[in-house]
Design goal:
Helix 1 packs antiparallel against helix 2. With 132 residues, the chain is mainly alpha-helical. The N and C termini lie far apart (38 Å). Helix content is 72%, strand content 0%. It has one domain. The mean pLDDT is 90.
Length: 132
């Protein structure tokens, strides 16, 4: 009878997701590395096994969700700064700064949690989740 129990990922399987997580974490200070990580994640997701595919899906989704929220925060800043001259835009500027800071922290937490699951050789349990 064949062994159908899920196997832990080998270290070779974990190399590229670990590189992408590293690039994402470096991207907190240098945005270019996030885009490099995204390209690597898209390139490797198709040929990955189910465990690593969950990490690639998680990484890709993390990128797009963070971009979406950064755009919202950036638009609030873009329109809030000129409007702050007449005091209407001050709440928009404050909200935009808060959103961008919260997304930065959220991005870092998601990457660290992903690294923890990857180090254990486990699939990310909910790669399509919005929060963590």
């Amino acid at each position: 009878m064949p062994d159908t129990a899920p196997q832990a990922a080998t270290s070779e399987d974990r190399t590229m997701p670990a590189v992408v997580y590293g690039l994402y974490l470096l991207g907190l200070a240098n945005v270019i590395t996030i885009f490099i990580g995204l390209i690597i994640a898209y390139a490797n997701r198709g040929g990955a096994g189910p465990v690593m595919a969950s990490h690639y899906t998680f990484l890709i989704r993390t990128f797009w969700l963070s971009i979406g929220w950064f755009v919202i925060g950036g638009l609030l800043l873009l329109f809030g700064i000129p409007l702050s001259l007449v005091l209407i835009g001050i709440p928009a500027v404050m909200l935009g700064v808060f959103i961008m800071g919260a997304v930065w922290i959220w991005f870092a937490v998601r990457c660290v949690l992903g690294v923890i699951y990857l180090a254990r050789g486990e699939a990310y349990p909910r790669p399509m989740n919005w929060l963590i």
